[in-house]
Design a protein that fits this description.
By secondary structure, the chain is an alpha+beta fold. It has 29 helices and 18 strands. The two termini are 61 Å apart.
Length: 746
């Protein structure tokens, strides 16, 4: 294990008990497992590759050890929640996954091999690996030199082992964990935008220093020219000319190098902020509330697309121009030092350009907002048309969508023309002022030379510096335009990312790895935001674990909404929904998803293989389990005849598959976790009779001990349930058995 270590802990909070272990903590990079103890002498080296070690780790024990470790810090998490905290899909749960999961829970950790003599009390509790791959939690080291060990087999009791046993039974590899201090928590949970750039504040300090040095070096050309005209030419000092030329070339070379470094620093900081903001943006999209999801998809995509404007602002030369602007006054001061009164020329010209530019700013900002809004409207029409292209074609409504698109396009083009007109006005105005300033400097400079106030070289140097002074202002129009675009993008993104997230996300969740499936509604009402009336009104009922319920009713009676409430997709406006006596909003989301399987009426299929659409990133399930649920859902009936089998690629929304085939895939997806509660919304409405009969029979056996709620009007399914709820206008108007409705229970 020869990977280099990259320490992540640079400083500790003053109130930390001890900082002896700060050098042990490290990050795991995407393609490396990093390691570090106190120093290189304390590491026990091994030639085994990291993957070989991870393959030897016993997964179940590592999950249990992670859960016990979190519990020792006061966090009760189920194994499902620990797995779910890993940011990317994973087939096995190894060291990298532990690091990722612990990071999500507010810990930093490192993996490495440390000598037993270097283990101090500050390192505990930690996860230690035995030679057979078992992972256990070592709680502490006693004064007698014994270790207190806890694992899944004796979670309630601890095992005491001495150092000799530790040396013989343990590999020496450990995962050392530390809770983030208050400062680190603030940085992690801070404002989505400012905290991302705050992490790179020292880089921006270096950028400012580089800008300062670069601007100092840029004086060399003006000073060189002034010296040549005043000293070299009158005296024929060619040796001095050579020396001065070499000096200027060196200075300009350093200037070139520093500007390159400055751009590199900005790129590094921008990339770091880009990744952080992008991550938060996608996390926010994944946590959108139902009312937010009901907004136009295209408009939402347009808002997300605005991030490109923000990224362009911090990755482009605009940031460099803004950094250079304060040095305008520095150059004016230098002109004053070498040419005296000529400094008044740029001192008057600069405010004129700035005042005109700032005066146009409110108009430019308003037009920029209109342009962004028009772009979002155009994007909304385009996405809506693409999603409903079959309907547009079938109904011949292309004219309507074309009219909407062209209206949005014209509005955006008009706003764009106005922005370009204002921008060109500022560009031309700044260029003209710069030329006027040069003429004025030469005009007044001649009088000053005649009077003996300044030299000829001072005049030429002042003209050169005057051009350097006005250079950033000549790009003021583009700068202001990009600033306005970035501000508009920031406001739109702040409304999305900075808005309040789901209430359930803010509660301290309760770990419920396994639910029995008893469901109870207590005075539950639900109304969509902006709707005129409630979808569900004061519902109260109880479903014992293992009972099968059918939901029937006319359109808009609230059947699908009821299922979504149980699954935690929607939250009740009033009342409470309990599963096994616990409010669903308090149950750990990962546990809820594992125990409650739901098949939505309009479940989405994504581009990718059939396997990916069923597993949805939960790669820990083996092929035997996948094949089992696919046989139950009748996916195997049509996939079995395909050359690529479950690796067969499908397009977005399942284009190319029949409605029944799409339903079988969605049904298999809902069965993936072998849930205790199964919510099915019209699961067989698009299936042929033969497939429906097979699916119903398979579900009857597979779900014999599961709680089921099925939205359906199909007779074969009604015959397999215990009770039938009839909904009308958001209320249960009847609760009957299938026999009472004339169906013979199968």
């Amino acid at each position: 294990m020869n990977e280099a270590i990259k320490a992540s802990e640079k400083s500790e909070a003053p109130d930390e008990k001890s900082n002896k272990n700060k050098d042990v903590l490290a990050k795991i990079e995407p393609k490396k497992v990093t390691k570090k103890a106190i120093d290189a002498d304390n590491l026990v080296e091994t030639i085994n590759p990291v993957q070989s070690f991870q393959d030897a780790v016993e997964e179940a024990s590592l999950l249990s050890a992670t859960r016990i470790l979190l519990k020792s810090f006061g966090l009760r998490k189920s194994k499902a929640a620990i797995r779910d905290a890993v940011e990317i899909p994973h087939k096995s749960f190894g060291v990298k996954q532990v690091i990722s999961s612990l990071s999500a829970f507010g810990f930093k950790s490192s993996f490495g091999n440390i000598k037993i003599s270097k283990l101090s009390q500050d390192f505990f509790p930690l996860i230690a690996f035995k030679r057979d791959g078992q992972a256990v939690v070592v709680e502490n080291l006693s004064d007698e030199g014994n270790f207190r060990v806890r694992n899944e087999a004796n979670e309630k009791d601890t095992e005491i082992i001495d150092k000799q046993t530790y040396r013989s039974d343990f590999s020496g590899y450990v995962i050392i964990v530390k809770k983030l201090n208050s400062r680190e928590e603030d940085e992690r949970n801070g404002h989505w935008f400012f905290s991302a750039f705050r992490k790179s504040k020292w880089i921006y300090v270096q950028v400012m220093i580089a800008a300062m040095v670069s601007n100092f070096l840029s004086l060399s050309v003006a000073l060189f020219t002034m010296t040549v005209y005043d000293r070299v030419i009158p005296n024929g000092a060619f040796e001095s000319l050579i020396a001065l030329s070499i000096g200027v070339i060196i200075a300009l070379s350093f200037d070139f190098l520093i500007k390159g470094l400055r751009s590199k620093f900005i790129d590094v900081a921008s990339k770091r902020a880009d990744l952080e903001i992008s991550r938060r943006l996608f996390e926010r999209i994944l946590s959108l509330t139902p009312s937010e999801q009901r907004q136009k998809t295209g408009a939402m995509a347009g808002t997300v697309r605005e991030f490109e404007s923000l990224r362009e602002f911090f990755n482009s030369s605009t940031l460099v121009i803004l950094i250079d602007l304060p040095f305008v006054f520095f150059f004016i001061y230098v002109i004053y030092l070498i040419a005296g009164p000529l400094a008044y020329v740029p001192l008057i010209a600069v405010p004129i350009v700035v005042i005109i530019g700032l005066g146009i700013q409110p108009f430019l900002a308003r037009i920029t907002r209109n342009t962004v809004q028009s772009g979002m409207n155009k994007q909304a029409v385009l996405v809506e048309t693409l999603n409903g292209l079959e309907t547009v074609t079938a109904t011949g409504s292309g004219k309507l969508m074309r009219q909407r698109y062209e209206t949005a396009l014209n509005n955006q083009a008009d706003s764009g023309n106005k922005i370009r007109a204002l921008s060109m006005f500022i560009v031309n105005f700044a260029a003209s002022v710069q030329q006027y300033a040069q003429v004025a400097a030469i005009f007044f400079g001649v009088y000053l030379i005649v009077e003996g106030t300044i030299t000829q070289g001072a005049l030429i140097g002042a003209v050169i510096l005057g051009g350097r002074t006005m250079a950033p202002l000549s790009q003021l129009a583009n700068t202001l335009s990009r600033v306005n675009g970035a501000l508009t993008a920031y406001r739109n993104l702040d409304m999305l990312i900075g808005s309040k997230q789901r209430v359930s996300e803010s509660l301290s969740p309760i770990s419920r790895p396994k639910l029995d499936g008893e469901i109870e509604f207590k005075n539950v009402s639900f109304q969509f935001k902006g709707a005129n009336q409630a979808t569900l009104n004061d519902l109260s009922f109880k479903i014992p674990a293992g009972q099968k319920i059918a939901l029937i009713g006319k359109m808009g009676s609230g059947k699908s909404t009821l299922s979504r409430l149980i699954a935690g997709i929607l939250e009740p406006t009033d009342g409470a929904i309990l599963i096994d006596g616990v409010d669903v909003r308090q149950i750990e989301s990962a546990d809820l998803r594992k125990n409650v399987g739901i098949m939505l009426q309009d479940s989405w299929l994504f581009s990718g293989s059939i396997r990916e659409n069923i597993q949805m990133g939960f790669s820990e399930y083996d092929d035997a389990h996948l094949l089992k649920i696919c046989k139950i859902a009748a996916v195997d009936d049509f996939v079995g005849s395909q050359p690529k089998g479950y690796e067969m690629e499908i397009k977005e929304r399942g284009i190319g598959l029949s409605g029944g085939q799409r339903q079988t895939i969605n049904l298999a997806r809902s069965l993936l976790h072998d849930p205790s509660v199964l919510l099915l919304d019209e699961p067989t409405s698009s299936m042929d009779q033969g497939t429906e009969k097979k699916v119903v029979e398979s579900l009857r056996h597979f779900c014999s001990n599961k709680t089921m709620l099925i939205v359906t009007h199909r007779n074969p399914i009604l015959a397999m349930v215990d009770r039938v709820f009839i909904l009308d206008n958001g209320k249960i108007v009847a609760d009957q058995t299938p026999e009472q409705l004339g169906f013979k229970k199968g």
